[in-house]
Amino acid sequence: MKNFLDGIRVLDFTQYISGPYCTKLFATLGAEVLKIEKPKTGDPLRYQPPFANNTNSSETGAWFLYLNTSKKSICIDLKTPEGRDTILKLIPNIDLVVENFSPGTMKNLGLDYSTLSSINPAIVMTSISNYGQNGPYSAWKATELNLYASGGLMKITGEPDNYPLKEGAPLAQLGCGQNAFVASLGATMFAEDTGVGQYIDISIAEYGTNVMENAFMQYSYSGVEYTRVGNRGYGRAAWGIYPCADGFVGIISGPDHRWPEFASIMEREELSDPKYGTRSGRLEYADEIDALMLPWLIENKKEDIFKAGQEHGLGFAYVSTISDILEMEQLVDRSYFIEIEHPIAGNLLYPGMPIKTDLEKWVYSRSPLMGEDTKNTLSKYTSMQEQDIEDGINKGYLQ
Amino acid sequence: MTINMPLKNLRVLDLSRIWAGPYATKLLSDLGAEVIKLESLRVYDSHRGPVNPNPGIVSYPDADPGENPWNRNGWFNCLHMNKYGITLELTTPQGKETFEKLLSISDVIVENFRQGSLERLGYPYEIIRSIRPDIIYASMPAFGNTGPWKKYLAYGIGQEQLSGMAHMTGYDNEGPIKSGINHGDPITGSHAAGVILAALRYRKHTGEGMYLDVSQQESAVSLIGGELLKYQVGNEEPIRIGNKSNIYCPHNVYPSKGDDEWITIAVTDNNQWKMLLTKINSKELVKYSSYDFTSRKVNESEIDKIISDWSINYDKYELTHILQSLGIPSAPVMGAPDLFTDPHYIHRETFETVKHAEAGEHIYPGIPWKMSQTQNEIKSASPLLGEHHEQIYGDLLGLSKKQLAELLDSGTIGYKPTGSRIF
Is pLDDT of B1 > 80? Predict the structure, then answer.
């Protein structure tokens, strides 16, 4: 056995963000991921800018390139009877189906779980959707903005006297994709052991509610709603994002016994005043402390501030730009970035798996061109002959 | 009826603390693994809060820390349901002997200490493997176990900053803003849980265990890796644009009726735009009716202003229902009070009501998926400090009552913190 997930074959109907991150993890860990795309157009994410080499082609969208590494692309028109039949021919060779259409779409296509499991009872099918497959909001349309809001995370992000904010990155969709990977792999391993397949329903909005932590619990426990606190840690002081000479840094006042280090790091004797020595004291004098810290922060660079804190055992951080990350010494030292060649997008650096093992078993290969693997895959996993496939291409239900 | 679970008969020895590690073991527990949470009495999981907290802190039931505040903290109690809880001092010979017994019967060990801590206690991977040859050891320090920053510390909030997430988040032309939670933690936890599962599958086929060196920082960067590709192909840093979008317009949060009440609206195509205009029925907006995305984007501030003047007359749920009936993506901005009473989340049983021996009966976040065959259920609340000594040390390891008493007397295990460094 060469890779972790050797032998697992995934039929991947997903598009955009959430599902593709789930199946990217499968592919990187060695599963064979067959990405089913609509002929001619493919995954709509293919057209999301910016594009490599200013090509504005279906093959060079930045997020598409990242989310679809190590997968194969098979173009099948699911809305034609022949296209659907082709999918059904693949099903006996499939362990896991993942889809993120709006609820009901797979049923309308005649590809719902009961149809697929009647052909292959050990099959696992995972549906990722905005709000889940049932319930009053299951048909609601949504973008990341809407899901971050209804998942409870937006109300608590931003300045108290300003409007609520979403994250810049699509974290609800990506986070749900991660958890979909965990659930789908668990169920696939269960099916390998027992022959029992199943259906998994996972919701992006519910991912938000699952990671609210204390924002959820303090209301549950004491009926007091968590509020927006801007950059200041909840119920904390000297804790959050501050400006510095060349950007922004993250200051974390650690345990009380570490507080005296602040005065020496920041060269301000006043910070060692005992009234700031406890968490509650610091909270009371939060603005005073900020004023005392700022002169030193403004004079120093982000990486120097980060390291000054770390050398004193404090978990300081800094707000990295994307170019900072590409050059970060820690990431370079750990060979975190993988250079992948692509015939149209060219050579680019891709983040690798965030995990090192004593057996380096990750699969890193470029995102597939649209329909690149249609012929090979169908002749390998169905009874279709070369002529059948050519016919399908001529009729337009394959590409 | 007990149904089989994907991870039935799988034992996880969980030394992890705070959130990243506990979220990983929560997900494994959600798949049916037996998770034994091991804490030190001196340095217990700091999510349990201080030994002597000030009264009035709202993370405790009714803002009352009570007699044993470490058992009543919501931060901790939402992350450890279904797990067993034991204490053990790994610094004493008796503690080490007991720890090694636990290791020998565990399939997985998880820790997110500061890098090298377990090694300094005498347990590098080589020793752990010599005790349990096929063990899967997931070590999750902030920056991984190698490299110039390996000794550095970071919390979830630091990971939002060091991954580029904070850089991309904020109001127009203003500074970066942290999220309301610490995204870095669950992101790392989920990556770790997934790869632990994959390693278990690998072990099943080969008999080999494995060491997994999980970097929390890399975890956050990997999740938003598309941004790194974007930068390389476009040579432009992301800019902070509030809730706006580069591909949809209008796309923002708008005030609704009430104090700090809001609705999000995202118009993703021209047809939705026409539908929205019909509904708003504003003379000022008529001139924009034929505008496509690009021309709407040019006039975004004015369009947002007109929508805000209109939305504020509606209840956020009422308006969402109206907009959804027109096919326009929209949703209320929900706070915890909304979530707890929301008909959709109630219908789906998204949250669980759980009775905790010292905290009482409350609502908790549940299992983040629904499985048709192997859906787990919440059978027990998060463990009190040392709650399961008898089950784990007695029933599982077979220690006698006398041996247990000796462990208690020597302070190797216990029920009350002994001088905590928790802040």
Answer: no
Give the domain extent around B281. 251-341
The enclosing domain of B280 has a CATH number of: 3.30.1540.10
**What average pLDDT does range A165-170 have in this prediction?**
97
| Maximum separation of any 2 CA atoms in chain A, in Å | 84
**Which residues make Cβ contacts (< 8 Å) with residue B235, sequence separation at least 6?**
none
Which of the four pLDDT bands, split at 50, 70 and 90, describes residue A237? confident
Residue B94 lies in a domain: yes
Put simply, the answer to whether B57 touches A150 (Cβ < 8 Å) is no
Q: Which of A94, A87, A88, A84 is nearest to A122 (CA)?
A: A94
Q: Specify the pLDDT at position B419.
A: 67
Q: Closest residue of A to B168, CA-based?
A: A168
Amino acid at A272: S
Chain A residues touching residue B74 (CB < 8 angstroms): 214, 217-218, 220-221
- What is the bridge-based pairing of β-strands A96-99 and A9-12? parallel
Domain boundary among B341, B366, B400: B341
Q: Are residues B135 and B268 in the same domain?
A: no
CB A391 within 8 A of CB A80: no
For an interface test with A, the pick among B126, B146, B230 (most A C-beta atoms closer than 10 Å) comes out as B230
Residues within 8 A of A (CB atoms), B 160-179 only: 161-171, 175-179
Set of chain A residues whose Cβ sits within 8 Å of the Cβ of B6: 186-187, 189-190
pLDDT at B3 (0 to 100): 63
Number of domains in chain B: 2
d(CA A334, CA B148): 9
CA nearest to B53 within chain A: A280
Domain co-membership, B197 together with B310: no
Query: Which sign, positive or negative, has the C-alpha torsion B185, B186, B191, B195?
Result: positive
| In contact, B190 and B27? CB cutoff 8 Å | yes
Are A141 and B229 within 8 A, CB to CB? no
Report helix, strand and coil shares of chain B as percent, to nearest 5.
40, 15, 50
DSSP three-state, residue A316: coil
Is residue B34 within a helix (H) or strand (E), and if so which, with residue range? strand B34-39
- Per residue in A340-380, pLDDT (tens digit) is 999 999 999 999 999 999 777 799 999 999 999 999 999 99
